[in-house]
Design goal:
By secondary structure, the protein is an alpha/beta fold. Helix content is 27%, strand content 21%. It folds into two domains: 327 residues, FAD/NAD(P)-binding domain; 178 residues, Cholesterol Oxidase, domain 2 (2-Layer Sandwich), CATH 3.30.410.40.
């Protein structure tokens, strides 16, 4: 077989058109003197379910939009393999996620700086968040306005969710109207990435408005095969389109934005990673970097269901044909109602015990309940509290199982591997029970349906978690930023030991943020683009 046919030379090649890649393509191509190639393994984001917020229920698990990864059997989850949704479409996971705009806590980014990553403390990264925001309440010291990403209030509220917020406040938590000011401890409705009730993905915000730039080329259905090297300098990317292998060459840099699973996988099949792993899969070692694929972190979600009385929930509305028609009409005419947002719009952030420095647990509350996602709702009114430990200490890894990047890698999360994660999981259940017992919910007579009153001891609760917990879709950390032996990129996101190659996505997080991850990934891309452009100018000055 001959050399792959080249589609040309570009200054920058970006692999992955997700939350990071779309923003990077926008920023780098803003300079008309440079050329940018954006490669996306998935297709166009023109399906109706990618626009209607509730459509996430139908796009997750659908191969047209989702990589449909599965974990390896997890010892901490009774040997269960769980589904790991990741977006495979323009917009990436921002096209199929819950649209929650949540930065995390100031503490998260200050920790990144304390780990040796200059320029990544909260005060450093806040301007990068603000620069791409179009906040519905206008610009202030915390938010930006006029940026590409619209951030709005939710367009649907429920009496039962209002009561949950009141009950959380009665436990001593603050009532919050904004979770993005550095300290998210409290309860309230989260902001969402929407524009008048329509999903605002990274593609619709950053990519589609600039698709006609003559110096930007977007290639869909193009799955990266490997990064090419000359010695230890990245020179381009080979990729598949169907059964055809093509190539492109990078004059300046290759930037991996394929996510916490895709980016380490691509590095490994390209010869950058732990030598023993690469050699076992017949991959020639270009550069030994043992941390590639290590440090995998994720938020493990566990649901609690409460039956309620004296109110209607989404359960009854979904089971009624007339209500389903009414909900569809309301959305079509007004862009409001249950179809305008995924149900878990109320958030509660708290400390699992008083010794915690800041809030370390998150509870997402939805006015609906199922035995499992995809099943019909229960035939009674109920709400579900989806809980997770925001700062897990268990660590996993992403390892290739062959030299072909089209084969899914092995995903080992090691959920509930540490005693601290087990302890926090038990404490979360007890914290939710305290909220459910507050006077604000008394009129609704909450009755715990899952796990139920029989689940009382720490052992019982942990057994329930092992049998039922799943991911909340926040994998990060597999190409972590730092200078320690397992670090993959430096604080300018350049891959250690090679030239012309960066990673700019969730993989670079040294520690997971305290909340949903999508906003943080966009910030990473915003900061990365600024550093890439600054480094290019420095090289030009030196060359002159």
């Amino acid at each position: 077989m001959g050399e792959p046919a080249s589609i040309g030379d570009y200054d920058y090649i970006i692999v992955g058109a997700g939350s990071a890649g779309c923003l990077l393509a926008n920023r780098l191509s803003a300079d008309a003197s440079v050329s940018v190639l954006l490669l996306e393994a998935g297709g166009k984001d023109d399906h109706i379910w990618l626009k209607v917020p509730v459509g996430a229920r139908y796009t997750q698990g659908t191969p047209r939009f989702d990589w449909c990864f599965k974990s390896e059997p997890e010892p901490g989850l009774n040997g269960r393999s769980i589904n790991i949704p990741r977006g495979r479409v323009l917009g990436g996971s921002s096209a199929i996620n819950g649209m929650i705009y949540m930065r995390g806590q100031a503490r998260d980014y200050d920790l990144w700086r304390q780990l040796g990553n200059t320029g990544w403390a909260w005060d450093d990264v806040l301007p990068y968040f603000k620069s791409f925001e179009d906040f519905c309440h206008g610009a202030d010291e915390w938010h930006g306005a006029g940026g590409e990403l619209r951030i709005e209030e939710q367009r649907m509220r429920w009496p039962i969710l209002d009561a949950v917020v009141d009950a959380a406040v009665q436990t001593g938590l603050p009532r919050l109207t904004n979770f993005n000011r550095g300290d998210n401890e409290g309860a309230g409705y989260a902001h969402v990435t929407q524009r008048r009730g329509v999903r605002a993905s990274a593609s619709s915000a950053f990519l589609r408005p600039v698709m006609q730039r003559p110096n930007l080329r977007v290639v869909t259905s193009a799955q990266a095969r490997r990064v090419t090297f000359s010695g230890r300098r990245a020179t381009g990317v080979e990729f598949w389109q169907g059964d055809t292998i093509s190539s492109a060459q990078a004059r300046r840099e290759v930037i991996l934005a394929a996510g916490a699973i895709g980016s380490p996988q691509l590095l490994q099949v390209s010869g950058v990673g732990a030598p023993a792993l690469l050699q076992a899969q017949d991959v020639d070692v270009v550069h030994a970097l043992s941390g590639v694929g290590r440090n995998l972190q994720d938020h493990l979600m566990l649901g609690m269901i409460f039956k309620v009385a004296n109110t209607r929930t989404l359960n009854e509305r979904l089971r009624s044909p007339l209500d389903r028609i009414a909900m569809g009409l309301e959305y079509a005419l007004l862009r409001t109602g249950p179809l305008s947002v995924l149900p878990a719009g109320v958030k509660v952030f708290a400390r699992s015990d008083p010794s915690r420095e800041t809030a370390n647990i998150q509870v997402n509350v939805a006015p609906v309940s199922y035995d499992k996602l995809g099943d019909p709702p229960h035939p009674f009114p109920a709400f579900t509290a989806y809980t997770y430990n925001m700062r897990p200490t268990s660590r996993g890894h992403v390892h290739i199982t062959g030299a072909d990047a089209r084969v899914s890698p092995a995903l080992h999360h090691n959920y509930l591997d540490t005693f601290d994660d087990q302890r926090v999981t038990v404490d979360i259940i007890r914290a939710v029970r305290r909220i459910a017992a507050m006077p604000a919910l008394a009129q609704y007579r909450p009755e715990e349906f899952r796990p139920g009153a029989v689940c009382q001891t720490d052992e019982d609760i942990l057994a329930y978690a092992r049998a039922n917990a799943t991911t909340v879709f926040h994998p990060v950390g597999t190409c972590k930023m730092g200078q320690d032996p397992l670090a993959v990129v430096d604080d300018r996101l350049r891959v250690h030991g090679v030239n012309g190659l960066r990673v700019a996505d969730a993989a670079i997080m040294p520690a997971i943020v305290s909340g949903n991850t999508n906003a943080a990934v966009m910030m990473i891309a915003e900061k990365a683009s600024a550093m890439i452009l600054a480094d290019a100018k420095t090289k030009q000055r030196v060359a002159a």
